[in-house]
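Encode chain A's predicted structure.
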Amino acid sequence: MLAAAATSLALVLPVLPASAQSLDIPSGTYKNDPTHSSIVWKVTHLGFSTYTGMFAREGISATVELDAEDVSKSKLTVTLAGDQVRTLHPGDKDFDAEIASPMFMNTVEFPEVTFTSTSIEVTGDNTAEITGDLTIAGQTHPLTLHTTLNQAGEHPMAGMPAFGISATGTLLRSEYGNEGLLGPVSDEVSLEIQAEFLPAQ
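Encoded structure for chain A:
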């Protein structure tokens, strides 16, 4: 029912911000805070509704090599536990396992979903287009994340520099070999990503 992730990852994911061309926090390596990271996917179901699911927060690992002086030179890498899908299906059926099965994502055989940025284009005071390679089930295709910087500065609780982003993207699950119920369930998968980043420890 989805092929993604991700997140997307972005695999994905992750998820790199831009405030104009620079950020008022130190350059360096930043990691996502799993408690405040999420990747939600959406597909249309028979034209009647939009079906949503997500991935386990603890299965999202994103790293930003931040160049605070020139955000466009930064790098983003995301690794997602694609077999940790969460649908919150109300019945006895293990629908999470079905989504991870060869019928859909095939993350049973290929559990790791990855996204690696190839370019970051600053598009506004707090927006950027992050393009990268998304790999799902052994298939790699480009994905662009439309990213908004929510805030960058000193984190009041963590006592260290931080930044938070929101991002969206779309992919075609058929490109990744995900053709289960294709037609009744849309080929296009929408991704919604939220993440807070703190300095890597």
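Residues 7-199 form a domain with the Lipocalin fold (CATH 2.40.128.110).
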